[in-house]
Amino acid sequence: MSQFQLHPRLLADTIILGELPLSLVLLARDSQYPWLILVPKRADIRETHWLNEEEQQQLMRESCALARLMETELAADKINVAALGNMVPQLHLHHVARFTSDAAWPDPIWGKHPAQAYEEPESVADEWRQRLAILTGFSAR
């Protein structure tokens, strides 16, 4: 079995914020939406059901904790959680805080508007690392 490596597209399109027990936590490089991504640190996994039962449950715990944090910290109108994998086959879960005032509301964010880079990406990443520090097992990178 090969070792876990983050897919090159995810590596290019995100900032690594840290790790939870199962997953890397990434920040998407699009300032239009608060957008975090969980990537289970398992090689060659494309689907949630490919994880063993314990890992499936851990991914759900991490996803729910992240969604709850985003909802609470940002007062989001909706948290969209999705695992598409059409462009990047590596299993990853998008967590996007949505607001009735955001650029794509009420439509999906994908392909709606070109990504807009953060002016100070490391500052935003550090803010997220501070928020994420309350999650059980989170370690910043």
From TrEMBL:
Top-level taxonomic group: Bacteria
Residues covered by the HIT domain: 3-105
MF term (GO), any: catalytic activity
Protein name, entry field: HIT family protein
The organism of origin for this protein: Oceanisphaera arctica
Source species taxonomy: Bacteria, Pseudomonadati, Pseudomonadota, Gammaproteobacteria, Aeromonadales
